[in-house]
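Quiz preparation item.
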């Protein structure tokens, strides 16, 4: 992997820079800017070298369609304020841009192409689309570690067509995670939550052989609660997971890795409703599970107390509503307490997990915080990430 930080002569080079500017948005406003703030050094480095930067990024999941609410416009505005350079959002259809000369008519130092996932070719890892994108620049830089577990065109395919480099932030994340995974001490506990069940559930199996405890919370836990014969009402869940859960349970017994899932929960009729504590066999058909209950919190806190290493991805509940943030807050507070006493080595990852920790001012109380969620888990699995492979 060649790092862009070692390159000289970038003067006037058009750099296709893949970033992860997928920040949480609420009604067009950015609610957490961590992912933007982290890549400012990269942008400063490149603008100082007088490179012409063409940013590629996605926001949310528009699934190949133009969805106005998922425009990069608010991100462009935030970058403008922070970098104090001229930045322009290019809204033209990428496929209609002929070649890199197109960009010569702009005086701005930084150009941002509109949400790359507006194009279905992106997630299909389309060869033609990647080749076309490659033709728009001179060099490619991947500074989106958190997207590097995806074999998508702008992450995996473009490097096949042009000189490609890692970015400063990607270098930092890979260095930190390499150090962490080589120094890890037992007992190791991994807490997995959040809502991206389909991506994360398959990873759990591969983590069983490496860890002592796997605590399953958040939306992910709903599938487990249902698997053990409980009705989960309107709760978030993923279809067709019974087989994988069965495998997880049987492998965990063989490998002596404890799988912990909620024993009680907090439910509501909807995301904005009032909260109610329930045992697992009390959930009604019009209710949804939105947080873990007090017994579960107690159990998790005990496990954290006995752990030397904690790896955490995914909130324990729908924390955006304070009524359902209690589980995540209690977990965070216990980890912080033990970290302060040097009793535990703690690492957290994931866009939403980081914004939760930011809201608690807790980032500095973790040994390392990665903005990557899925990529973070896959890295822990020991998998080589497609985006990294492509740079090697
Ligand atoms: P990360 O970004 O940290 O990797 P995810 O993107 O997988 O995490 O999931 C974060 C989202 O999961 C948050 O928006 C949170 O509100 C949601 N969430 C957690 N638990 C639940 C639940 N029980 N029901 C619905 N959403 C949940
Ligand atoms: Mg997320």
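Solution:
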């Amino acid at each position: 992997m060649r790092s862009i930080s070692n390159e000289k002569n970038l003067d006037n080079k058009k750099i296709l820079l893949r970033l992860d500017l997928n920040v949480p948005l609420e009604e067009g406003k950015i609610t957490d800017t961590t992912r933007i703030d982290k890549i400012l050094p990269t942008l400063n480095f490149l603008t100082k070298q007088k490179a012409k930067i063409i940013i590629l990024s996605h926001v949310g999941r528009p699934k190949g369609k133009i969805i106005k609410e998922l425009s990069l416009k608010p991100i462009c505005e935030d970058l403008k304020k922070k970098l104090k350079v001229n930045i322009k959002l290019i809204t033209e259809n990428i496929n209609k841009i002929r070649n890199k000369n197109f960009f010569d008519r702009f005086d701005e130092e930084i150009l941002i192409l509109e949400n790359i996932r507006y194009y279905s070719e992106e997630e299909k890892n389309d060869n033609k689309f990647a080749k076309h994108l490659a033709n728009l620049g001179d060099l490619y830089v991947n500074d989106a570690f958190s997207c590097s577990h995806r074999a998508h065109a702008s992450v995996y395919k473009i490097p096949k067509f042009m000189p490609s480099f890692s970015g400063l932030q990607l270098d930092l994340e890979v260095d930190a995670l390499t150090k962490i995974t080589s120094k890890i001490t037992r007992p190791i506990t991994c807490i997995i939550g959040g809502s991206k069940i389909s991506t994360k559930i398959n990873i759990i199996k591969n983590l069983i052989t490496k860890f002592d405890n796997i605590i399953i919370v958040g939306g992910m836990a709903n599938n487990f609660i249902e698997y053990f014969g409980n009705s989960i009402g309107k709760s978030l869940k993923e279809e067709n997971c019974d087989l994988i859960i069965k495998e997880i349970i049987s492998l965990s017994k063989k490998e002596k890795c404890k799988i912990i899932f909620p024993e009680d929960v907090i439910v509501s009729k909807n995301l904005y409703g009032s909260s109610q504590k329930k045992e697992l066999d009390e959930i009604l058909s019009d209710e949804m599970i939105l947080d873990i209950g007090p017994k579960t919190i107690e159990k998790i806190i005990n496990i954290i107390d006995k752990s030397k290493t904690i790896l955490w991805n995914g909130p324990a509940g729908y924390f955006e509503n304070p009524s359902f943030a209690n589980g995540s807050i209690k977990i965070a507070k216990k980890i912080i307490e033990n970290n302060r006493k040097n009793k535990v080595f703690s690492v957290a990852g994931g866009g939403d997990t980081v914004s939760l920790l930011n809201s608690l001012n807790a980032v500095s109380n973790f040994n390392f915080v990665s903005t990557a969620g899925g990529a973070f888990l896959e890295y822990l699995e020991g998998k080589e990430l497609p985006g990294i492979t492509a740079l090697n």
